[in-house]
Amino acid sequence: MLLKKCKKQGGWVFTISVLLVLVIALAVLYIITNNKDKKQEPLEPTPSSLKNPHLKAPIDLDAEPPTVPQTTPQELEPEVDTLFVPDPVPDETPKPRPTLVNGMKKPQSLIDLLILGAVAQNGVTNSYNGAYQKLSYPNGDVDISTGVCTDVVIRAFRSIHIDLQKEIHMDMSRHFRKYPRKWGLKSTDRNIDHRRVPNMETYFTRKGYKVPIGSNTDIKHYLPGDLVVWRINDNLTHIGIVTDEIVPNTSRYFIIHNPVKGVEISDWLDGEIEIINHFRFFDTLNP
Question: What span, in angstroms and rounded, lies between the C-alpha atoms of 232 and 235?
Answer without folding.
Answer: 8
